[in-house]
Amino acid sequence: MDDSACLISLIRDSLRPMLPLPPPPLPPALEALVYRPGKSGRNPFAGVRGVLFDVYGTLFSSAAGDIETGNNAGTGDRGSPPENSTNRETPDTPFPGIGEAIVLGELKAYFRSAVREIREKLTARTAWPEVRAEEIWAAFIRERGLAVNPRELALRYELAVNPVYPMPGALEILKTLRAAGLSLGIISNAQFYTPFLFAAFFGALPEALGFEPRLLFYSYELREAKPSPRLFAKALDQLTALGIRSGDCLYVGNDMLNDIHPAAALGFQTLLFAGDGRSLRLRQGNPLVQDLRPTGVIRSLADLKALWDR
Predict the structure, then answer these.
(1) What is the pLDDT of residue 82?
(2) 244-265 pLDDT, tens per residue?
């Protein structure tokens, strides 16, 4: 039975407007790369034929700055924001839709423990293991003898701990780039419900919004998470099949390690989205990005749109 419509409705019902937080000052080397609308000169990405996006923290603002996979805390240079900064739930909040007295804190502890256990088992295969949230919650449901759809529980949990909302200008930039004839894609740490965000907020799944189906790469499908080079290598294979070289493709993301590093390593042009203090991950001090420079930096998605609106 297809539960997509129900899950999309759940996202819509949880809608909580959330504005980006002011980002911190950038290091001088990155500040020099910031694109400023109205600046004279040609579009530096005029030759680009494809644009691939990260989702969480780039197209969608999220409380955690990324998708909740039980391992977000402390991943950013500045740490994660306090739980109550954008989230009305507390650890003692009774969790809806389960049918017995279970509080959010108990679910958090279970989920994060399960993530650690699964990742320990998978590290022999990859340095960047990814979990499937619905499998974790299916095990929880079996243990408790609950009559709950594991996909629904997975989504309800994500919405409780990591509310999301479209970044300002997200839909407009997708329309602009598609109208310009560019091939659009996604490379993102994600779960099965991630495409439903587009349907809930923008009215259609990514494919119907103009994303090329062959250019959609979600970490849960590959069982590997960014910065795994495998996601980007698979994307490059499909770009090549479409006649697009890596140097003619732009990757847009908010994380110097997870986004800019693996994309640049395969020859993509890269654009650091530095428009939200929750999600910006400069990874200062990490040797992999210490001398890395993106092709450019933007402070808002409207700035990217302005490049093709000239």
Answers:
(1) 36
(2) 999 999 999 999 999 999 999 9
Distance CA 265, CA 278 (A): 26
Provide the β-strand partners of residue 127. none
- B/e letters for 216-243, b = 16+ CB within 10 Å, e = fewer, are bbbbbeebbbbbbbbbbebbbebbeeee
pLDDT in tens, 153-187: 999 999 999 999 999 999 999 999 999 999 999 99
253 and 185 share one domain: yes
Residue 88 confidence (pLDDT): 53
Does any domain span residue 279?
yes
At 64, give phi and psi (nearest 5°): -85, -10
Listed in order, strand segments (DSSP E) in the chain are 50-53, 60-62, 164-166, 183-188, 211-218, 249-253, 269-273, 296-298
Q: Are residues 181 and 197 in the same domain?
A: yes
Write the DSSP assignment of 118-135 as a string of letters: HHHHHTTT-SSB---HHH
d(Cα 248, Cα 26) in Å, to the nearest integer? 27
62 burial level (CB within 10 Å; 0-12, 13-18, 19+): buried
CA distances from 63 to 157, 239, 258 (A): 13, 32, 18
